User: Fold these one by one.
Assistant:
Number 1:
Amino acid sequence: MTGQRISTGATLCAAGLVATLAWTATPQADAAVRQRYIAEHCYGTNPNLSDVPSYGGATITTDTTEPGRFSIHSDSKSFLPYWSDTTIKVTSLTTGKSRVYKRHWQHGLGDNSGYFVNDIPAKGPTRITITSVNRGLLLTLPGPVCTGTLTI
């Protein structure tokens, strides 16, 4: 009976060791927020002309706890205020289907400018195209067409 207890104990110990090694050898999924820039060198003329160039790119944020979804944010500073009507087109390169999001926002030097679009569904290779119409104090100008491709 003592031999059986030792054999059972050794088996349990070995099983625990194998389970521990398997757990530590398996890569654990890290819940992480990741950011990527698209069209980061995409600039246009500020409608106030003698001001900071208008930035048309954006930051894409994904969160591994929410697969298949992402958020987009952009901001372009300006000494003089101006307003943008921005269109964000998100196209699946797998299916060819697109979704369009529109935002009206003001440019300035403060932290309250810019736009956000949250909880955008996407899966696989995705193209994002950003266009805008910028309205300054005297002029209205088209913004640059900014495009980037990423895999969600």
Note: Confidence is low (pLDDT under 50) at residues 5-29.
Number 2:
Amino acid sequence: MGFQKPWRLALLCLLLAALTACAPLTLPDRSGCERLHARLAYCLLTPAEMGRSLERLDRVQLRSPAGRQDFIGQLAVDEKRFLLAAQSLTGMALFRVEWDGEQLSSRGRFPDEAPEPIQLLALLQLLLAEPEDLNRVIYGGHLEVDEQGDRRLRLDNGRVILRILRASDTGMIEMIMDEDIRITLEPLSS
């Protein structure tokens, strides 16, 4: 009889651990939070939390199982806003996404197979912000940075769901999401 109680307790502990691991990830109750994966959530940093102003102009290539799309992306960050605008290679406006730390607004036509507007901003923040700041707003995983500056977003179970690779000689950046979506940023001179 005494042997059965510890066995039942061990079985109950295993069952509870399995249920907890399968429980859905709850998003924090704040604006700008989005699920980037079934087991990972990210809350956008406010523009002020980005810690620096910057501007980038890139030729962007989006490759997915549906095909390839190219466009020009312009990013502007200051203490009040985080702005991403895109235009076709011929100069036609495509889309615009803006985040002021409280409200996200977007308009325009987004490329097929592109991540959602909030996910696009999250990807750019994962590329540009300080890892310590990012790890405060990642739920269900963490960001790692290696000696070369490449970044990996890992789930708590160790699986890598995003790799950000930098070519130091050209400034090109490649983001690979779950191996089926690739976004390449090639800096354009201003």
Note: Residues 4-22 form the longest helix (19 residues).
Number 3:
Amino acid sequence: MTRTARLKLQLTCFVLVHLPLIAVAAAALPRGAYQLVGIAFAATLVAAICVWAVLGRALSPERASAA
């Protein structure tokens, strides 16, 4: 997999992981539940960083040649 294709896949997954945050924000912000949005943002950010790192390692050329 080329570096560009891997980066596109990582960015797509990064965006997809943030979709639940958008749903929580849409439901919670009109009610003034800012703490809930903050917690959801933190959890989403951690998940997105983990997905980014795992995909980067799993799809790296060094790993593919070792297999």
Note: Residues 3-63 form one domain.
Number 4:
Amino acid sequence: MPDFLKDSPAYGNVSRAGDGCGVVVVQAQRTTRRPSPAMRPAQSDLVNILSSLEAHWHVLEAEVVEIGSDIEHCKLCSKKYGDWFDSPLQFLQELQRTKKEKM
């Protein structure tokens, strides 16, 4: 075994890959770090915030889809009944733009 590996902290995990070939394989140890007790509430808060944001995203997405459907219905009514539906159509288009900007 090479001398530089004898002083290595990974010395216990060193093995030879064959006799006489001079190849040394070092296996890295993987440690799992657990958060300190002080970090657990921060992680919990972060998970809650992310869950809340995801829920709001889904609500906004559903609203945009519904508004898109309403816009199509309003366009059909505008063609069928005339100018009475132009103002609601403009309102719905602006509302859809606003919701998409929030996303």
Note: Residues 3-29+53-102 form one domain.
